[in-house]
Amino acid sequence: MEWPIFNKPLSIPEQAGLILLFSLNINNYLYICKTVFVPHIISHMDKYTHYSREDLISEIERLKMKQAEGGSISSSNKMMVNMIVLRKTISDVLSLLLSTNDEAVIDKALLHILHFFDVERVYIGIFDEQSSIVDFTHEVTSEGIISMREDLLRQLSKDDIPWWIDQIKAGKDIIIYDTAKMPSVAAAEQHLLKLQDVLSLLALPVSSEGRVYGFIGLDSVRKYSNWNALDIENLRVLANIVSIAIEREHAQHIMEHSANLMLKSEAKFRIIFEKLSLGVELYDIDGTLLDLNDADLEIFGTTRESAIGINMFQNPNIPEWVNHKLKNGEDVTFTLDYSFHSIKDTQYYATAITDREKHLQVTGITLKDWQNKIFGYLYIVLDDTENYRKAEEKRERDNELIRVKEADKLKSAFLANMSHEIRTPLNAIVGFSDIVAETQDEDEKKEYLEIIHKNNDLLLHLIDDILDFSKIESGTLDYHISEMNIKEICEEVFLASSLKMKPEVKLVFDKELPSIRLKTDPQRVMQVISNFVNNAIKFTEKGSITISYKREGNYLRVNVQDTGIGISEDDRKRIFERFIKINEFKQGTGLGLTISRTIIESLNGAIGVDSVKGSGSTFWFTLPLE
Fold first, then answer.
1. Which of 29, 276, 387, 425 has its CA 20 to 30 A from that of 492?
2. CA angle, residues 27, 32, 35, in degrees to nearest 5
3. CB 539 within 8 Å of CB 563
């Protein structure tokens, strides 16, 4: 590349030395010249090594006057003058940008740049990414040069200057020595430049944080300019300084625009905030409550003085996952069963509501600025307690209706089943009574009498179940509490049930078990154990049925274990319900276990069954010893 201030082309290392000139003092620069530049330049600059600051300033003024009078000066002297003038220009621009908030500060800075480069026009273009346009926001011109910015250079689209925009956005410098020799792809740009009488131009990208957002350009109108590396780097240094002011101006415009919007919306927001029927709570970035509306005060039964200043992240009713999502910048919507007991216990805030729970619909919103940084939070609260209560009441009515219909169906099935269950033993009793009267064989009579006796017991048991169930339904089932020995009760059931056992089934009871005494209803306890044993006899074809009991803390536990068919998981869940029969082919009312559960629960105990299908069952109950 040719450097006009020298008599010969400079190599790359020599050009690098010139670029370093901008950030080094004169002595450092002369040292680089000694190690990089050609000897004829070094010899001319050695004499400045020991100059004082005043000597240098005097020498520069002398050289400038000589140059102004038409005298010639050496290349090394030209370079030193360039360096000092650049430093002065940088100093002037920085002072201007840092010392004033004048709206025209950027234009004033551009005037310094215009004089430094001795051109006729300096301008700045800014890209608007949202609307895909470029706008020449600033322009200064020398005396006698007409600005055509308002006529030609405002709001240009990519279609107007496609080549220019592509070059700049790609981070490339635009260096044109002669606009008449521009490439054919730049025809649109060439036309615009011709309208402005531009002969040469230099434009560089302006970027921030690695993103090109515009450019700065120089136009030479009166003469052709042979832009060199020194010009380019000089402009780049000055462009970097001016870009700071551009960013500050952009930030100020954003702030002013935001302030205007806030002023316009403040009145509307305040009206909405206060009159909204939903509760609204405004928190800062730390979760401290800044403001809330009247609807919110009513929902939580508190006052503004008590609520302001509480921290949202310490609310005992808010789940931790909600706080986590909000802190991570995620909005959330959730239902909340809001307990005022926990508010009172933790003294989170003072409230007039102390013994209730409210059902709320809550939306949590993170407030973010234009850089997507969180600066606060907003809770919007809907008190849905009344609707929830009505829904619960309707659900309860519906469930009750279902229960009534189900009970009617079960009762109908029960009555149909009872007619069959009662008729079966009655038919046996009547039929075999007639046969007994007619037969003469004593063995046959004995057999028939056993059948009659068995059906009498079955019929009596059916009637007892029906009567007990009727008393339970009417709430008149009687209990007679007295002291009893569980060992005696189990022995009595064991003796009574031994006569009912099937040939291949053994009834087991360990008579060596210790006596355990408790106060309860002995007849009802015997009834429950008998129900357990009778059910075990029905469903056990071989093996054993074992009656046992033991102390568990302050409770007595009684077990009836069999090796029968077992019970499936689905049947275990409903086996203690009314009219439930696991096997429809077995005789019975389906009320025995329901009655047993009612008895045990009325005696402050618990009842249950442990079973695996095909592996037998263990029915059990517990009763308090004290």
1. 425
2. 130
3. no
